[in-house]
Amino acid sequence: MKYLSEYKNYLNLIKDGLIRTYSIEKYHSNLEIMLNSLNLKYDLNIINKFIYDLEIFNTNNYSNDVLEYILNLNKNLLGYYPSYVWVTNINGENGFKYDYKYINNKYHNIKIRFEAKYEDGLYKNDLVIPDYAYHLSSMNKKDKITKEGLYPKATKRKTDHPERIYFFYDIENKDDLLKSLKINDIMNNKNNIYILYKIKMPKDIIIHSDANYSGGFFIYDFILPKDIEIIEENL
């Protein structure tokens, strides 16, 4: 009866998985029901309530269709997305920003980092909206941002995310964030120059906590040009 109750709960959850995020700490059993039904050899490592790693062992025992099903199950069941992947082959383990090409049974093991679409649950506010926040962007986007505003973009960062705009609360954190961006550029053979923007945050906007950075947040909405001010250039 307990299994049946959990399965019914699973059916309800999967209807909502695209529009909200459920805590993996609370609902991991629903995911495990489906993974166990595939006779999957796996390890589920819960980082916190909105981030977890799923490692699939002996990947070559499963078809690529099964691997795709497992991927989609994690994406749609509880409201998560794959952000990073580690693959193990004869050369050892290597990690990459998530790309679908790594979901392949040619590897011995595959480990996928899943992160919440909405770290604070539903698409709603439970965070205090600051009057102002800050945003770093490359110089080549200056004209577009000042004329058209800020739109959510899936930028090329260490992990893969749905389209978002990232902000940080305190201008004193600029140097650390800029250093991180520069290191990422070097790894991708780029040499970007950055601009620091000050953003007046609309009072009716929805903001979401960033599981990877406690000093910032992200939005899925649009920022008007009139609410954007350049603070520093040529960074």
The overall pLDDT average reads 83
Give, in spatial order, the strands making up the sheet with the most strands. 1-2-5-3-4
H and E order? HHEEHEEEEHEHEEEE
| Largest sheet report | 5 strands, antiparallel
Quaternary organisation of the protein chains: single chain
Distance between the termini: 61 Å
Structural class: alpha+beta
The tally of structural domains comes to 2
Strand content: 25-35%
Tell me the helix content: 25-40%
Structural summary, described in words:
The protein is α+β, with helices and mostly antiparallel strands and 235 residues long. It folds into 2 domains: 2-116, no CATH class; 132-232, ADP-ribosylation fold, CATH 3.20.170. The protein is built from 5 helices and 11 strands; from the N terminus they run ααββαββββαβαββββ. The protein has helices at 2-16, 24-37, 64-77, 142-148, 174-187, and strands spanning 42-48, 51-56, 80-89, 92-97, 109-116, 132-138, 165-168, 194-200, 208-209, 216-219, 228-232. The strands form 3 sheets. A 5-stranded antiparallel sheet has the order 1-2-5-3-4. Strands 6-8-11 form a 3-stranded antiparallel sheet, sandwiched between helices. The protein has a 3-stranded antiparallel sheet with strand order 7-10-9, with no helix packed on it. A hairpin with a 6-residue loop joins strand 9 (208-209) and strand 10 (216-219). Helix 1 packs across helix 2. The longest helix has 15 residues, at 2-16. The protein is globular and about 55 Å long. Residues 1-8, 13-18 and 154-160 have low confidence and may be disordered.
